[in-house]
Every structure is written in structure tokens, then in C-alpha cells.
Amino acid sequence: MTMDNDETMYELEYPEPETQSDASNGLSLVVALQGYADAGQAIDNAGSHIKAALEHAPLATFNNDLLIDYRSRRPAVHILDNELAPAEKTELSLDVVRDNAGTPFLLLSGPEPDLRWNAFTEAVTDLSKRFKVTKAVSLYSAPMPVPHTRPLIVTQHGSYKSDPLRYPRFDGRITVPGSAQLELEMKMAKEGIETAGFTAHVPHYIAASEYPSAVVKLLQAVEETAGVSIPLQALERESEKVERELEEQVEESGEIAAVVHALEAQYDQETARYRERHDRGLLSSDGEVPTGDEIGAELEKFLAQVNRDKDTHDDGAEDNGAGDWDESDAPRSHDDDNHGDHRPRSDGGDDSDEA
């Protein structure tokens, strides 16, 4: 695709890799664009895992100079032995992937474009029609007020009809910030391509950390929807490790345990109500996805009540040095130390509005 100023939006690979199989009646496209709704780094890791675990080859590579605002997404540059090393390369690409049974599907992965959303989504839609895509599966993850001790919820939107008990759907009207990925979903739907958007609900207090459980659940949704097989054993082992670490931290702090128990009660009430009306959405018709500020405010109110109850119970007792609960006490993976400061955030970033 060529722009007015002769700059190309993307370059096609030559020779073009094979995208069809004898049994193929159309391809599925998996969309995993990082940077919009990526709580627990689930979307970035989902795309990376597919490429690491399965045979793949590039079909098209997009022009970052046209799509990325480098000032808001600065690439890391290393100084090695007093010399500048090349910057880390960030690539937005469309790849053909084959699962272990040889079934092909397409993967669009890399950073979400900052610029030219219309041109980008038109280009991807044109490529999808060229390669006979019949179904598009888009992945999201959002920080939500849910406990890590309950089954992770994955909600679904779009024209594809999944099991409402396995992948709940939202009722009524939900307002979320726009994104290139959402624009792409709408364009594909207009072209008659079946769309399925899956959103993993990541516990908001660990949304800044890597959360492999969300990756596993999203890739399981891809398997079921696209009819492909993705090796998940390594991810499942890592998920079990992180869950054990979180449980250990909860057991070490009564304040953290109280917060988690409150979220468990809320989760149990909501899921019970949903099962009673399983043909409806997860929320009531006038429900809205809570914003990051609302999540943080609710958590602060609960913690304030915990402290008031504690003060009443310990009235007259000497200070035992425990102090007030601080967000730095919240559970987080031990692996976080390798990834900078991953303490829980109450604002949830841009991700908190996605569903």
C-alpha cells in the first residue's frame, strides 16, 4: 500500500510464504497489538509466545516511521563498553503461523500504531481479504477488581457467538476509549469478516506485573475460536509458579488477605447472579466498566474501613509496629524484581477502560 507521499505503509515478503492448506476454507487472524489494553503484559506475551512456540514467517512488515510516535514510545538504546549499541527494534508485522498439526493462521503483532489509524486498518483489512481471512480474533487484557484466587474471567464481544457461561458477554452499552485494534474490528465486521474480541480480567493489584494466567486463558480462547493448537505447557507451569508466590504473600499479611477476601465475596456474588441469567451479559443493562480511579477509590474505602475496624478492635492496645496497609505490601510476583517497579497501581493506566 502506497501513501500520497510515496511512502509505503507496508512491505510484502517476497517470495510470499504459503498461507493455505489442503483442508483450509479460510484463515483466522489473531490480533495482539501491545500498548492499549495489556494488563499483566498478557497481549505482548501472547503474541511473543505464539511466535516462540510455533513455526512462522512474515507476510508483511509495516513502516514504523509512518505509524509510531517515537517520542511517546522511545526505543531503548544501550551503551556497551563505552560504545552505543543499536536500539532495540520494534516491529509491527503480519505473520503466517502454522500450529503443530500444520493448520495455518495469521498473527498481527507488535506495537499499536500511534498515527494513521484509518490507513493502517484499511491496509490490514485489504490484506485480510487478499489472504482470505474469514475470522478475526482480537486479544485484550484489563485491570479489574477481581481476586487472583478465583478463576480468571475472559469476556467476549463481537459477532462470534461463544458459550456465554465460558465467555460472558456484556449487556447494554459500554463506553471505552478507542484504539486502532477496535477500529480494525469494526472495519472487518463491515467487510463480513466474523469478529471475536476477548478481554482477560486481570486482578488490578498485579496488573503492572507479568501475569501468565491471563496469557493462558487468552490463548485457550484463540484455540477454541480459531480451531488451532498452541503449546501451553510452559505457560501453565509459569502460571502455577506465580500463583504460589502470590498465595505465599497473601498468607504473610492479614491486611492483604482481608482485601482479597472482600474481592472474593464480590466475585462470588457477581458470578452467581450471572449464572442465574446466563443468557444475559456479565453486567446489568445500565452497568459500566469501572474506571481506574473508581477501582482505586473503592479499594481505598475498603482499606480505610479495615483500619477503622482494626483500631476499634485494638483500642487501648500498644502499637505493634504493623502500621497502615500500603500498596507496596500488595502481592506481586517475585519475578517483578527483574522488570523494574511493578507494585500495584490504583489508576490502572489506559487499560482500565477496556472490556
TrEMBL record:
Gene3D superfamilies: 1.10.287.100, PAC-like subunit
A Pfam entry, by short name: PAC2
Matches recorded under InterPro entries: Proteasome_assmbl_chaperone_2, PSMG2_sf, Rv2714-like
Stretches the record annotates as Disordered: 300-355
SUPFAM superfamilies referenced in this protein's UniProt entry, alphabetically: Cgl1923-like
Stretches with biased composition (Basic and acidic residues): 329-348
Domain of life from the UniProt record: Bacteria
Protein name (record): PAC2 family protein
